[in-house]
Design a protein that fits this description.
Layout (H helix, E strand, L loop, with lengths): L1 H9 L2 H31 L4 E4 L2 E6 L7 E4 L5 E5 H4 L4 H16 L2 H14 L5 H24 L2 H8 L3 H4 L9 H9 L9 H27 L3 H11 L5
Parallel strand pairs: 2-4
Antiparallel strand pairs: 1-2, 3-4
Helix pairs in contact: 2-5, 4-6, 4-7, 5-6, 6-7
Length: 239
């Protein structure tokens, strides 16, 4: 009878949802950690150099972006030697200052956590807006570090590089909002997509309704001990 109680609990809507959410979170965590392990394995044997007081490594893959920060707790700056050849010394200084900001604040760790929660709680799409805002703040902070190390005109010249030189580097993942904040002094306010916000509210409403229904149903169902006592009475041997 106890086994029957456990089965009844496991097939409830709340139990199914929580178990599915747990497995989905485990798969997402494995995927994110696998990505970082792969990046670490690719950069573990790279030789470290230093320029403008910032240590970095040269990438061996010609398809890598111009600059990136690899690692969670002990991040490493990796530059593409072929693409960095297009940079002037001042541009290289600004680029390293930008990536050094990501390294100092461990932005890679926070981005990985944001990516995990975005994938795990996909039914709350407003998390994507929150994650995008946090990533934008990280890039603006790194851009300010580059401007402080060199000059705003140097950072602007980096933005004007050919797309094949940038090659989807995080430095060039800028938007009109980012440019207006950096160069025009615009405020970095929160922006939420109306459609995503409505879907998030609907998801929360459905979850509360399901949990409330299961709680009300559980209150009307006898406990496992009551089931055991009832079975002992109903199936007692005849005298």
């Amino acid at each position: 009878m106890i086994e029957a109680c456990m089965i009844a609990l496991s097939i409830s809507a709340t139990g199914l949802f929580l178990s599915g959410l747990l497995w989905w979170g485990l798969l997402g965590g494995v995927a994110v950690m696998g990505m970082h392990i792969r990046n670490f394995w690719r950069t573990r044997a790279l030789l470290s150099e230093e320029a403008f007081g910032v240590s970095f490594c040269w990438s061996r893959d010609a398809n890598d972006p111009l600059a990136r920060t690899v690692g969670l707790f002990w991040p490493t700056i990796v530059l593409s030697r072929e693409k960095a050849a297009y940079l002037s010394p001042k541009q290289l200084h600004a680029l390293l200052a930008h990536e050094a900001s990501h390294k100092t604040y461990r932005d890679g760790l926070w981005r990985s956590l944001l990516l995990f929660f975005e994938r795990w709680l996909f039914f709350f799409p407003t998390l994507s807006d929150i994650a995008e805002h946090i990533r934008l703040r990280q890039e603006v902070r790194a851009d300010h570090a580059a401007i402080h190390a060199t000059d705003a005109s140097v950072l602007q010249s980096l933005y004007l590089l050919a797309p094949e030189t940038a090659n989807a580097s995080p430095l060039f993942a800028f938007s009109s909002r980012r440019l207006s904040v950096i160069f025009d002094g615009a405020s970095l306010s929160w922006h939420f997509h109306v459609g995503r916000l409505l879907v998030t509210i609907l998801s929360l409403t459905l979850l509360v309704a399901v949990f409330s229904f299961d709680t009300a149903s559980a209150a009307t169902v006898p406990s496992c001990q009551e089931f055991v006592n009832m079975s002992a009475i109903n199936f007692s041997p005849l005298r």
